[in-house]
Design brief:
This protein is 48% helix and 9% strand. The chain is α+β, with helices and mostly antiparallel strands.
């Protein structure tokens, strides 16, 4: 099966509908406690959690302007504009996992929250709950649509379970061609889902910023994907200019504490130059207590340290006018060449701000990262038929452990799939299947293999 991405996605969507809509399997939903509040705020301001809806007692609300994401104490979004039952209001917006957090955090007695015009919550409050400010005014409560929340953050993850014959027997019975069809369908579905989320985000923050955040996510690898995206949101592309290093490193919180006296002179000189630029911008960009970015520093290879990833993002920002025209499938080779050629006099030979100089230069953005950006973002957003055909031919140098584990989980000990699993679409398809079934449901409760076997026998999906 080749067709086009829409046909492939439709095939997989039929399978999803077959499994879920018949009531045999319930999709796992993210819970408020599983979503960091700062991540929820980040999703809200880009429109991924909706642009309004029905408040609990105040009627319909529409978000006209999401406001400014607060870097300091006080309400989460400042100087927003909403339309409540046809009346326009300007003020602040507060977002909490639960409505009760308003009182838990003391907002109801804090005059700094008297300008809040909307309280957004991830789950509906108990019956009879009211959000009131220190003047005892009733603030409209807007619960986030759970389907939008699930689509934006993905599904919750089950603890690992041992694969059973229930998993392996039906999928072992598939031919290699049928497996390829299934994985193409899952990859197509994954592409369209990513495309919808990206374009919704671009509508609110602009296309250049959406691409900038996509590159930031890619540079963050798995463990710092969300922190890098959040940094790009806190320090947006249009505000960086020549001060990209100072703003990004300062906002990330990497310029303090001061370097030790034992640091090499070259290191101290570079740190001082960035710090001097940051000092003049500090009041505008520094994140207040409780709003800092949660970086993961271990276990990481030296070249993947967050300091170096932020440096790569800063250099990319300074070359964005040359990168942006290459963000399409037909310019893929030129884009990889441009990204891997980015250089910096300090970061070419340093892994962290205080680290010793390395004798050998290391690329800021390696070829594998550049290709990952292509696979997960550039080809995803390109609607041309040629982009889909090229995507289906892309190969991966390595097979990630997550992909190998999922393949073993689904196909058992089959050895005839090695070539297939080296293709990018096959790996992406396996990741989608894992997200929809394996990572969210225990094997003993999952009806996916049985429904897939039924589909094969009736040729519903593999005709």
């Amino acid at each position: 099966m080749h067709g086009n991405v829409q046909q492939a996605a439709a095939l997989y969507e039929q399978l999803l509908h077959c499994v879920y809509a018949e009531g045999m399997l319930q999709a796992a939903e993210p819970t408020p406690s599983s979503i960091p509040e700062l991540e929820a705020q980040s999703l809200w301001m880009t429109g991924l959690l909706g642009q309004g809806g029905n408040t609990l007692r105040h009627g319909q609300v529409r978000i006209i302007d999401f406001g400014e994401w607060n870097r300091s104490v006080g309400p989460d979004f400042l100087r927003a504009e909403i339309e409540l039952n046809g009346t326009r209001l300007r003020g602040d917006i507060e977002l909490d996992p639960t409505a009760q957090d308003w009182e838990h955090h003391g907002h109801g007695a804090n005059p700094a929250y008297n300008n809040v015009v909307l309280h957004v919550v991830l789950t509906p409050p108990p019956a009879g709950w009211y959000t009131r400010d220190s003047l005892h005014r009733d603030i409209p409560i807007l619960p986030v649509d759970p389907q939008l929340l699930a689509a934006a953050v993905g599904k919750t993850t089950m603890p690992p379970t041992e694969p059973t014959e229930l998993c392996r027997e039906p999928l072992n019975a598939l031919s290699a061609e049928q497996i390829a069809t299934l994985l193409q369908a899952a990859a197509g579905y994954r592409i369209l889902r990513k495309r919808r989320l990206f374009r919704l985000k671009a509508e609110h923050i602009g296309l250049p910023q959406a691409w900038f955040e996509a590159l930031a996510e890619t540079l963050g690898y798995k463990v710092n994907k969300q922190p890098m995206q959040m940094l790009a949101r806190r320090a947006p592309l249009k505000e960086l200019g020549k001060q990209a290093e100072a703003i990004l490193f300062g906002t990330a919180g990497f310029l303090v504490p001061v370097l030790p006296e034992s640091a090499p002179q070259e290191t101290r000189h570079y740190h001082r130059s960035v710090w001097d630029a940051w000092w003049a911008l500090r009041t505008e960009y520094e994140l207040g207590e409780g709003r800092g970015i949660n970086w993961q520093f271990a276990p990481l290879r030296p070249g993947n340290h967050p300091h170096r990833r932020v440096a790569a993002l800063a250099v990319a920002a300074q070359h964005w006018q040359h990168i942006e025209p290459l963000l399409k499938a037909e310019r893929a080779d030129a884009l990889v060449e441009k990204l891997t050629a980015l250089t910096h006099p300090y970061w070419d030979t340093h892994y962290t701000l205080p680290s010793a100089t390395q004798s050998k230069r290391t690329a800021l953005i390696g070829e594998s990262r550049a290709k990952d950006f292509l696979i997960n973002h550039v080809y995803v957003q390109d609607e041309s038929p040629a982009a889909w055909e090229t995507y289906l031919r892309l190969k991966e140098k390595d097979t990630p452990s997550a992909v190998r584990n999922t393949a073993a989980h689904l196909f058992g000990t089959r050895t005839d799939l090695k070539k297939l699993l080296s293709l990018s679409y096959a790996q992406q398809g396996l990741l989608q299947i894992d997200a929809d079934y394996c990572a969210t449901h225990a094997c003993c409760d999952c009806c996916f293999p049985a429904k897939l076997k039924e589909a094969c026998q009736t040729s519903r999906f593999f005709a």
